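QA checklist item 7 of 12: single-chain prediction sanity check.
[x] sequence parsed
[x] length recorded as 306
[x] structure emitted
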Amino acid sequence: MGKESNTKDRELILTRLLNAPVELVWEVWTKPEHIKNWWGPNGFTNTIYTMEFKKGGEWDLVMHGPDGTDFKNKSIFREIVKHRKIVYEHVSGPKFTATIEFDPRGEQTHLTWHMLFDTKEEFEQVIKTFKADQGLKQNVDKLSHYLQTRMDMQKKLKTDHKARVTTYLNFPGTTEQAFLFYKKVFGGTFLGDGLRRFGDVALPEGIPPLSDADKKLIIHVELSIPGGHILMATDAPESMGFKLDYGSNMHINLEPESREETKRLFDALSEGGKVTMPLEDMFFGSYFGSCTDQFGVNWMFNFANS
């Protein structure tokens, strides 16, 4: 990286082999809808106000600490080489320049994260006060976890973007019993991994640990029934903060062929109605949202990111 030998006393370097292709690593590093989900040490959440991902572009965010303290951050992107390098200057205190290098290795990516502080005193202060070395490791751990979650979930989604319409059901903890019943009635077939449980999935940072009982609940199931139709479902129990009202626990699930068509349908059907979940990229690998239209019909929108 061409670093001078006299900078050793004011720099941090961390390397990691990430189990994801460089295209995906670059995507979650460069889009605010992703980076907000993994940025920072353990327990931190983020609000990104500006992220102009271009040379000279500003990046303004506030990191919310687990104790409620807010940390304002402002950076300027100095160099961007797609799928290879990102250099940004942290212009608010503490001042440093970060260089992140991406080395594609097939279905993996070797990441090198280098932070060079303006002064030795500033470097020593952030190590002593903020434990920046531990924070950087936790940050990369969260990035790795986020990537692995997306990789795992994408493998379970349909492998093409051919549009389809399905029926999506929510149950307060009885999805397994219901779908074994429907399978018997219709003589259908479970698709994918069948009854996939919450305990099978690495959930995002910040979600409280699940009880043993909740780990056994169903996070996703698909059942083919006559007529080429597919029933889908998940458990949404009160123990996870959900409250189901019968009649509102069923949605028409739309899976369009593109993000643009997903956005168009979401905007059209939610106009005059109520947005129940804003359309955004989710940890399970989909561009996802839901709404109730002006006539009281519930809709879900689900585009599997490739």
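[x] summary fact logged: The mean pLDDT is 85.
[ ] second reviewer sign-off
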